[in-house]
Structure formats: structure tokens, C-alpha cells
Write a structure and sequence with these properties.
Layout lengths: L1 H23 L12 H20 L29 H9 L6 E5 L6 H6 L6 E8 L22 E6 L5 H15 L1
Parallel strand pairs: 1-2, 2-3
Helix pairs in contact: 2-3
Length: 180
């Protein structure tokens, strides 16, 4: 009896892992399965949601989630070590109280998951400064500017490898003055 239960549990786990790999790209390449993965995702996403709620209720002016920023995860796909896109969840929470949200991404990688989530809306503007070319995730072309009502609300600033701090700062300052 105990052996049957153990075999059923192993079969069920194998089926779940196969489904996760096939449906959500979990367990593949840059998104390995690991012990505590679900709890990690809960903590990361929950902290960003909590930060957005605190901002919405004006109980804080600044909120930072040091375990967040998982901007590659998509609605049904883990990507780039990102399992749940905490940023998208936080922005959705902010939109409950604010007509518009400006998302600025200064990570070396393009914030593809956030951009994709809001690509067709004018309520969220995404601005991404990132390395571009033969570099993960391979998105974030200057021509990717949104679609439908979101046309013009996605701004990508693709940068070459090796940019220095002064040049980066000047580009950032110039672009953000125009966004403002």
C-alpha cells in the first residue's frame, strides 16, 4: 500500500512537472524548478503588491521590493529566471487608484514581460533602457512602440554594449525630460 502511494505521488509529480514545462516553460533553461519556488514567487509578488497597496493608500511615499523586478515573466510563460511578473501585478494594483502609471526599466535587459502586458493600453507607459542586439531577451527594438490604444506608450531605448556612465546619464536625462 505504501509503495503504491509513493508511486502515485511520483507519477503525479512527474505529470505536474511535464505540464509545467510544456505549458509555462518552468523547468527549462533559465527557469529551473527548485525547492521553495512557489513560496519564493508568493513572497516576491506579494511584496510588490503590498508596496503598491501602501502607495495607493498613501501610507508611504517610497516602496522598494528588493526581491522583485522580475520583468521577463509573461502571462503564461516563465522566462529569464522570472516565474511571476511582480511588476505587472503591482502596476495593476496601482491602476485601481491612478489613471496612468509610468514604468521605467533601467535593467540591462529589456523589460519584455511588462511591455507585453501593457502594449495595447494608454494607461501604462513603459520606458526601457537596455542593452540590445545579440543579448537576452532579444526584444526592445526602437520600433516597438505599442499597438492600438497603446501606440506610443512603449518607449525602448536600445543601447550598445560598453556605454559609460556619463553617456548613459545624458541619454536617460534627455529621454525622461521628453517623457515628462
Amino acid at each position: 500500500m505504501e509503495a503504491e502511494i509513493r508511486e502515485q505521488a511520483q507519477t503525479s509529480s512527474a505529470i505536474s512537472l511535464a505540464t509545467a514545462r510544456e505549458d509555462f516553460k518552468v523547468g527549462e533553461n533559465d527557469c529551473p524548478c527548485f525547492s521553495g519556488m512557489f513560496e519564493f514567487s508568493q513572497i516576491s509578488a506579494g511584496a510588490s503588491l503590498d508596496a503598491a497597496i501602501k502607495l495607493n493608500h498613501r501610507s508611504t511615499d517610497i516602496a522598494i521590493n528588493w526581491a522583485g523586478g522580475l520583468h521577463h515573466a509573461k502571462k503564461q510563460e516563465a522566462s529569464g529566471f522570472c516565474y511571476v511578473n511582480d511588476i505587472v501585478l503591482a502596476i495593476l494594483e496601482l491602476l485601481k487608484y491612478h489613471n496612468r502609471v509610468l514604468y521605467i526599466d533601467i535593467d540591462v535587459h529589456h523589460g519584455d514581460g511588462v511591455e507585453e502586458a501593457f502594449y495595447t493600453t494608454n494607461r501604462v507607459m513603459t520606458v526601457s533602457f537596455h542593452r540590445y542586439g545579440d543579448f537576452f531577451p532579444g526584444t526592445g527594438d526602437l520600433k516597438e512602440t505599442g499597438a492600438g490604444e497603446g501606440l506610443g506608450y512603449s518607449l525602448n531605448v536600445p543601447l550598445k554594449k560598453g556605454i559609460d556612465d556619463t553617456t548613459y546619464f545624458n541619454i536617460y536625462q534627455t529621454i525622461m525630460e521628453e517623457v515628462r
